[in-house]
Fold this sequence. Notes:
Radius of gyration: 20 Å
Shape: globular
Number of domains: 2
Strand content: 25-35%
CATH topology of the largest domain: Dihydrodipicolinate Reductase, domain 2
Strand order of the largest sheet: 14-13-12-11-7-10-9-8-15
Helix content: 25-40%
Structural class: alpha/beta
Largest sheet: 9 strands, mixed
CATH class of the largest domain: Alpha Beta
Distance between the termini: 42 Å
Amino acid sequence: MDQIIKTGLLAYGMSGKVFHAPFLSAHPGFELYAVTERHQKKADLDYPGIRSYDTVDALIGDPEIQLIVINTPNFSHYDYAKQALNAGKHILVEKPFAPTVAEATELFALADRVGRKVFVYQNRRWDTDFQSVRKIVAEDTIGKITELHIRYDRYRSGIGVKSFKEEIMPATGLQYDLGPHLLDQAISLFGKPQRYDKILAKNRRDTKVDDYFSIHLSFENDIHVFLTASMLVADPQAAFVMHGRSGSYIKQRSDVQEEQLLAGMKLTDPGYGVEPEDKQGMLTCIAEDGSKSQQRVPAEVGSYLPLFDDVYRSIVYNESFPVTREQVLTQLQILEAEPGTGTL
């Protein structure tokens, strides 16, 4: 590679261990250089020789580090991003990028002043299930899209132990947890919506924050996208239901990368990123003569490695990153808004 980018992780919990470290380690353009571990020191067991700092301040202050991954609780993203940029680091920030449009705009402006890059980690663009949806849209397989439903169903009736998801604080609740994923997928497919209708609800016993949301996005050319997530769905429905002028496509939530990485699978294992056959999407097409055909659609092999390749190419070759500032600000405008109807 033309340049090796020394990278530090601000945390080595589940996200650091699963969503970042394996890919930074595998990509030839990055060196997984350091991590913050406040309590137990475990990263060295997985990556011998990695530096482990006791505090975020110490890691950000290391002059060798060029890129910092901000994978800390939601409410801390803005402060750590600002601190890292002021220290002259490029940053890769997990969703949500910031709690508000104003804070995000401030961070983008700061990055421009100090000459550093800001990347927002929207890994669900690289899920196998969404990639198959994107391909159907790109290839015009079912004609002009009329309607798309994207769901993220879970059943977790109890109150979780992560206070930043359950207590009243900036960027809390289910809409800030799963909303960035679903909004980003819709925006990446169809651009900026013209209007939105948003519903939030609290259904779990003793919950302080929203645990259900439904957002209807209206796009140009009469395209309508419905985003739904709930913590109380005992029988998860299809993750993607899409209809067009000449057909439909239905796809279960099927990306296996998180599950495989948690189980210790390596990126080089033959089965990595390969979804089960029973999760293949169902494509139904109507021909001009009215005849109907159906077929299963196998997904491409999944990997989040291309996301990191895009980060590398942006830093080293100044190429554009697919998650744009405008897309991030549009997403945050909807998340920050009160329930109800708004225009963009």
